[in-house]
Structure prediction request, 615 residues.
Amino acid sequence: MTGETGQARGARSLLSVASVAVALAAADTYVVVLALTDMMAGAGLGIESLQKGTPIISGFLLGYIAVLPLIGRLADLVPRRKILLACLAVFVVGSLITGIAVELPVMIGGRFLQGLGGGGLVPATLAIVADLWPPGRRGTPLGVVGAVQELGSVLGPLLGAAILLVSDWRGIFWLNAVLGVVFFVAVWLIRPAGLEEDADDPDYESPGTRGTAEPQPRRNRLVTGLAVVVALVAVAAGSLALIAPTSLTTSVAWGGPFVPIGESTSRVLTPIGLVAVVALMLLALLSAARWLPTLVRADVLGALFIAVALGALVLTFSSADPAKEVLGPWGLWLLPIGALALVAFAVRQRTAANPLIARGVVHGRVIPALVVSLLVGTAIVAIVVDVPLLARLTEGTTETEAAFVLVQFLVAVPVGAVLGGLLLKALGPGLVAAPGLAMTAAVLWGMSGWTRGALDEPGLATMLLVVAGFGIGLAIAPVNDAALAESSHTTHGTVSSLVVVARMVGMVVGLALLTAVGLRRFQEAVNALPDPTDSDALLDAAVVQVQTVFAGAALATLAAAGIALLLGHHRVRHSTAADLDPDAADLDVDIPDSPDRDVPDSDAPDPESLSQHKP
Prediction:
């Protein structure tokens, strides 16, 4: 009994650490909003070049979204804890690079690494929940993960503001690095039994080389030792190049390696910077035998195609001002590239022996889960963008005040996510998600009638925003629960990443489509004005755009509510064919909805599932 309690405690501890890490990564999406001008100054750019700072945010989003399918697939090929550790390590490195950057390209690169590491935490954590909690008991932990992710988005700007009160903008990234190291150590120390068995599976350790002859131990030690030395050189040279200590750069004897090459002014394009680059390339070659077979098995080519397609979407729409334009400045040539990459990915999926998304993974309730996630993303971004926009259309409202209006919605989302997870103990995913989304759709439809003075009535506006956030929150855990219940242990990472990607794509593309329609109606309203110079009339015309976006989001959310019913009317059961036998996932059986099985009331992980070896 004591051992079982220890296993459950270990699972909860790992979930707690991973969830807080997910919240930190989510907060980092917008933690730099208030510090953006200071970061630009740190890169030597003035306020007149503020538009050039957009990639500081979009670079993070690019890393967060574009590589999610690959990380999800890797989470199915190597132990989930290793993925968590790798993502935390990348997040820490990205934070350190951003914190010491004095050039915009380096700063953007650091933010990209932050996003890459932070984004990978989400599917890895969801897959760990699926591993440690059997079907029927995942609702609460899934709700917790969804809640902290949304809570992180709320706290991001507030966290950035708090740090700026006691430090400069670099303090944001030093804190990220410190917390990332703390989480890394915690994940390293916490070893739930259900995950630890996988770490000893040779198929996980070297999935691409199983059955081949083992290299000589002496050669292994030599290569490993050399790789460690090269890694230390790369870290030392890279740190010196980026920090460029004054005592060295101004020294006659030691300043030579820090002198930029040719006409460049970059700290990277210096002799010592090039040493760091060469060392990193050599390290990649020396360690290729450890990671290359796994990447090949994960279908790195397919991952590259989908990364280009998703990256084109992110860069096209995240760089646009939603109040004025649909496409960003690079959209006209990025979108065709993204379309070609998407076609190439589809061909790769059909022809590859081991495609990025294994055949048969997207089936059953996974399909409605992805559609609902995409539509929910559209609803979320419509509120997040257009509620502050409507607030700013009210005379005298500052941007900060507009942001606090939005907090009322964002705080309600994690509350709904936790309750949605708890309700899954008694109700099916569809019966939890559909009513919540229908409620949000009704609120959005009511918001489509708001005028410029609507937010001046704090009682009604607050109630509607809270109800909308609560309804969306209710759908988060059921969507993940239904998708994971339909997959096997060997595909939990892939399915989790697809759910997250669908939601992010819904946010990016949904906002663009709704904004396109809204801008058209705005232009029609402006053309109909008897006096186009009347400022009040122009503001009223701008409200038409906001109303259009809310109405479109209401229709999208109503569609999501209807599709959510396909997630299942019965609660997900304790035992499924997929969990007992991964091969059973291909069978036409529906054990999760079997009426003659009961679900234990405990939210603790199932000791048997923790100790059972899973291939």
Observations:
- Residues 40 and 53 are 6 Å apart (CA to CA).
- The longest helix spans residues 492-527.
- The chain is about 70% helix and 0% strand.
